[in-house]
Design goal:
21 strands; binds pyridoxal-5'-phosphate; eight-stranded parallel β-barrel; Lyase, Ornithine Decarboxylase, Chain A, domain 1; nine-stranded mixed β-sheet; about 425 residues; 2 domains; TIM Barrel
């Protein structure tokens, strides 16, 4: 559920008419709903009930400072994948001890900084990474808290680009190899084993793959225990899908019940860390855009809008679907079927195919469900400045990122110095 809706033919974010935001801030512009973000985080937190748990919001889904700030105020932990995300969390008021650091390619400087600020856990993805972390921890004279991410070889039944739990993927360590790495870690003086981690993919729309993976993780925990390796937590990753078009993903309560059922049945009382990203912010954001030109022909109609694949990459990258709605209903224009495309010089630059819309040039549109993997994937391709970001909060709105300027676009460049 989100807080974007029509009232008297006007499309609102909470109680703010979004056309007003577009007039004041310009387009393209991302708009997030505070109430939606907070609601989703709280649902996850409440769904675990008495089972010890920590919700570590996955920063990669939307790393805007103001979004992280809202979540930090709720007491959220954070799942990060880079030094940049780590600094964002700190700046937003997140506690280092509530941070889990995932990712296959952590650099030496990222690991050093993570240990210096005492992050809660480094989720390791290879034996080489374990050696690197142990060495840096030694140098700093600290014990590095680590989990090892295992690859359970489970098909998440999602888009191949966001499937991470299959044997052939670059993520995690498979079966017996993971056991060997854990044993090595247990013998290292500068390493403190905290847990086991697992994340099989994103935009999962069924509980089955989560359950399958969790059963394998619990098997593995039992195996570790039989080798005298005790854990402090179980990090089960993120991945719960959202509704974009036809999907009917389980709600957070159903997902959580499935997780708790496995843990209870298997007698596992370990505290659980979850890393939801998309399910918290995905439906909490829309992208506002204005129709620049309409091109009608006898075989195809194009609506050329001022947002492009550089602003929202999901349609081009994943064939992602986003509902497209007019900010004002009741147009006098004749409805036609449009390909909604951006100004970028690529045929992949589309936001939606075959959409029935009654629109005129100059009209404002909203693309729904762009709060996750939206702005974070934006680029300056075609030297287009990155869009502004706004958060609506009841009947008020706040610009939380100004539109980038052309000067900022070139600020780190110079003319050829020779
Ligand atoms: C390790 C890890 N945790 C959490 C997430 C968040 O996934 P989602 O946004 O689907 O919840 C991802 C995303 O791919 C991830 O790689």
């Amino acid at each position: 559920m989100d807080h974007f809706h029509y009232s008297n033919d006007r499309y609102l974010g909470e109680e703010v008419p979004l056309a007003e935001v577009a007039e004041v801030v310009g387009t393209p512009c991302y708009v997030y709903s505070r109430a939606t973000i907070e609601r989703h985080w709280r649902i996850f937190d409440a769904a675990f009930g008495q089972h010890p748990h920590k919700v570590c919001y996955s920063v990669k889904a939307n790393s805007s400072l103001a979004v992280l700030d809202l979540l930090a105020r709720l007491g959220s932990g954070f799942d990060i994948v880079s030094g940049g995300e780590m600094e964002r969390v700190l700046r937003a008021g997140g506690h280092p001890s509530d941070v889990v650091f995932s990712g296959v390619g952590k650099s030496e400087s990222e690991i050093r900084r993570a240990l210096q600020i005492s992050v809660g856990c480094l989720n390791l993805e290879s034996e080489s990474e374990l050696y690197r972390v142990a060495e840096i921890a030694n140098e700093l004279a600290v014990k590095a808290p680590i989990a090892i991410r295992i690859n359970p070889d489970v098909d998440p039944l999602t888009h191949p680009y966001i499937a991470t739990g299959l044997r052939d993927s670059k993520f995690g360590i498979v079966g017996q190899e993971a056991l060997a790495v854990f044993k090595r870690a247990a013998d290292m003086g500068s390493i403190e084993i905290k847990g086991v981690a697992c994340h099989i993919g994103s935009q999962l729309t069924e509980t089955g793959p989560f359950v399958q993976a969790l059963e394998k993780v619990v098997d593995f925990v039992d195996q570790l225990a039989s080798h005298g390796i005790e854990l402090a937590h179980l990090d089960i990753g993120g991945g719960l899908g959202i509704h974009y078009r036809d999907e009917n993903p389980p709600d957070p309560e159903t997902y959580t019940s499935a997780v708790i059922e496995v843990l209870d049945r298997r007698g596992c009382r370990l505290p659980v860390i979850i890393e939801p990203g998309r399910a918290i912010v995905g439906n909490a954001g829309v992208l506002l855009t204005r129709v620049e030109y309409l091109k009608h022909s006898d075989h195809r109609n194009f609506a050329v809008v001022d947002a492009g694949m550089n602003d929202l990459l999901r349609p081009a990258l994943y064939q992602g679907f986003h509902e497209i709605l007019p900010l004002q209903q009741g147009s006098a224009s004749r409805p036609r079927v449009y390909d909604v495309v951006g100004p970028v010089c690529e045929s992949a630059d589309f936001l939606g195919h075959k959409r029935s819309l009654a629109i005129a040039e100059g009209d404002l549109l909203a693309l729904r469900s762009v709060g996750a993997y939206g702005f974070v994937m934006s680029s300056v391709y075609n030297s287009r400045v990155r869009p502004a970001e706004v958060i609506v909060d009841g009947d008020r709105f706040h610009v939380v990122r100004k539109r980038e300027t052309v000067d900022q676009l070139m600020e780190n460049e110079c003319l050829f110095p020779g």
